[in-house]
């Protein structure tokens, strides 16, 4: 950014959240010698979504070597797709290796952020009752962290254990018992896979079936892991695997237009997977979605169709009448006796930093700014909220994209906006309202044409039915993040 040179300034940073994005921001700040930062984490441990989600069967559906920071490759991944616990351990190790731990304040939630117009600083209210101040706020609070609880009549009367998948109850007995799984998204599907090998009976309560993209899974041998450690270029080769990237581009280019040949190709692969894998024609029809593949987030699985055909698994597609002490009563009168009921019903993806009360310049409330829908300029900055930057904020590419890579690219964009502040050439940066309005208008037009807007229900949709995600494909995103357009910002 070509802003006049002035006296350089030591900025104080507050990072909200010690998950994947918050750790990234902390590492990057520390790396460039910006040591005056605090990571505020409301929980007692780091890891974000990988700390909160501990359900059996949790794996990441991005290949493990691609779901790694570019600056912290990990030769020890156990398999092509890594499990939740080892990913959580990876983030702990990165935070320790890169000297981040002393900067994290655990058990401290930011309950309010208020911009001080006269001093151009952010006043932070902490859950401990203390107050803090920062020049720059990095919002790394994640997208999927507020459980979406279903409104099921009688739920509190259930005699067994009932809990949301992201609030796992370790006292629930799964082996040899009868377990119900409500939901068929990525979480419900992975749960059914794992439980089918442990529970006596698994009932999957499925409101809508999902398209399943077949993918390979294989462990890395001890020799392979040693080879990765001795020669990191082998890991880079997996990260840069042309076939993996061809799939990313096929999806990310195709999603911009739900009538595209790429989406038709993806649907053909998923349909063939269904036809070839599920033998019972009745079950096959139960599992056949009636909307285009990719409209709901695609599920990548190497085993769901095998697991769901086990004799101890039943897919229930009827409506639920109520929960009774002993199980689930269906609308047609059928009763499913259960010991455990897992609510894999997803998340409220429209919350982001909320319920933190955020007040920007001139007393502008974030709730008011986001009245119609959450938005951020190129998913990162907000007009009226100077020196506040979001990682994986509203309209970030969240659908089947490698999210670590997204956050790293967003950080490159943020770094460039921070530079004039660091140099003392400006005390405030925020996007111009007209630039943001123009961005949102273009985004909404494009978003309606994407596969996410192709007529199904999914967690991307805002309350007006517009997909709240990046609508222009991966290349456009990486190009946009390479350099902010200076004229779209106001530096004061
Ligand atoms: P989700 O995709 O939003 O799925 C929620 C499921 O619950 C849907 O099947 C939904 O049915 C059902 N549901 C919601 N409310 C219901 C109700 N009142 N009655 C009956 N069914 C109800 O949530 P998720 O599976 O937790 O996944 C969320 C996202 O987390 C994923 O899309 C992905 O981005 C991420 N994730 C990733 C991985 C990974 O491997 N990387 C693993 C897990 C999660 P309808 O479809 O009919 O609404």
Describe the protein.
With 492 residues, this protein is an alpha/beta fold. It has helices at residues 20-31, 49-52, 84-97, 186-195, 222-230, 233-239, 242-254, 261-277, 281-286, 304-308, 366-369, 403-422, 433-449, 473-482; strands at residues 13-16, 37-40, 104-105, 110-116, 121-126, 131-134, 136-139, 161-164, 178-182, 201-205, 212-214, 299-301, 313-316, 320-324, 327-330, 335-337, 340-343, 357-359, 381-382, 385-390, 429-431, 489-491. The longest helix has 20 residues, at 403-422. It is globular and about 70 Å long. The structure holds NADP nicotinamide-adenine-dinucleotide phosphate. NADP nicotinamide-adenine-dinucleotide phosphate binds at residues 59-61, 144, 150, 182-188, 190, 207-208, 296-297, 344-347, 457, 459.
Major sheet, described briefly? 6 strands, mixed
The total beta strand count reads 22
What hetero molecules are bound to the protein chains?
A: NADP nicotinamide-adenine-dinucleotide phosphate
What's the mean pLDDT score? 96
3D shape: globular
In whole angstroms, how far apart are the ends?
A: 14 Å
How much strand?
Answer: 15-25%
Please state how the strands of the largest beta sheet are arranged side by side.
3-2-1-7-20-19
Helix content: 25-40%
Count of helix runs: 14
Provide the low-confidence segments as ranges. none
Radius of gyration: 23 Å
Which class best fits the helix and strand makeup? Answer: alpha/beta
């Amino acid at each position: 950014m070509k802003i006049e040179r002035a006296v350089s300034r030591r900025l104080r940073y507050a990072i909200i959240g010690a998950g994947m994005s918050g750790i990234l921001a902390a590492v990057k700040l520390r790396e460039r010698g910006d040591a005056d930062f605090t990571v505020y984490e409301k929980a007692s441990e780091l890891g974000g979504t990988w700390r909160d989600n501990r359900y059996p069967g949790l794996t990441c559906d991005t290949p493990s070597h691609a779901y790694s920071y570019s600056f912290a490759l990990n030769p020890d991944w156990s398999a092509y797709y890594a499990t939740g616990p080892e990913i959580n351990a990876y983030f702990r190790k990165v935070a320790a290796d890169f000297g981040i731990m002393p900067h994290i304040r655990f058990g401290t939630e930011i309950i309010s952020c208020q911009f001080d117009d006269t001093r151009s600083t952010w006043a932070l209210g902490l859950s401990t009752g203390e107050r803090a101040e920062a020049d720059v706020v990095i919002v790394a609070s994640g997208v999927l962290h507020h459980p979406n609880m279903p409104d099921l009549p009688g739920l509190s009367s259930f005699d067994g254990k009932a809990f949301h998948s992201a609030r796992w109850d370790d006292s629930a007995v799964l082996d040899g018992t009868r377990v119900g799984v409500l939901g068929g998204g990525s979480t419900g599907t992975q749960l059914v896979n794992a439980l089918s090998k442990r529970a006596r009976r698994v009932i999957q309560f499925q409101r809508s079936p999902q398209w399943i993209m077949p993918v390979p899974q294989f462990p890395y041998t001890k020799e392979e892991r040693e080879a990765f450690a001795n020669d990191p270029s082998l890991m880079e080769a997996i990260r840069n695997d042309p076939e993996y990237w061809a799939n990313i581009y096929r999806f990310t280019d195709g999603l911009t237009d739900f009538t595209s040949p790429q989406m038709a190709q993806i649907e053909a692969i998923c349909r063939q997977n269904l036809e070839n894998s599920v033998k019972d024609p009745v079950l096959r029809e139960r599992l056949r979605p009636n909307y285009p593949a990719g409209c709901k987030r695609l599920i990548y699985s190497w085993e769901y169709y095998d697991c769901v055909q086990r004799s101890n698994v039943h897919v229930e597609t009827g409506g639920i009448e109520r929960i009774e002490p002993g199980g689930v009563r269906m609308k047609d009168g059928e009763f499913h006796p259960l010991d455990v009921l897992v609510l894999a019903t997803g998340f409220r993806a429209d919350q982001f930093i909320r319920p933190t009360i955020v007040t920007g310049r001139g007393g502008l409330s974030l709730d008011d700014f986001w009245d119609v829908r959450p938005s951020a300029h190129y998913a990162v900055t907000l007009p009226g909220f100077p020196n506040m930057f979001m990682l994986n904020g509203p309209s970030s590419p969240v659908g089947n994209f490698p999210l670590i890579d997204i956050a790293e690219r967003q950080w490159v964009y943020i770094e460039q906006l921070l530079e004039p502040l660091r140099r003392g050439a400006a005390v405030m940066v925020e996007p111009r309202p007209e630039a943001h309005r123009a961005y949102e208008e273009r985004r909404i037009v494009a978003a309606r044409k994407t596969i996410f807007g192709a007529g199904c229900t999914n967690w991307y949709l805002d309350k007006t039915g517009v997909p709240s995600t990046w609508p222009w494909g991966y290349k456009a995103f990486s190009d946009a993040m390479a350099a902010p357009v200076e004229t779209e910002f106001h530096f004061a």
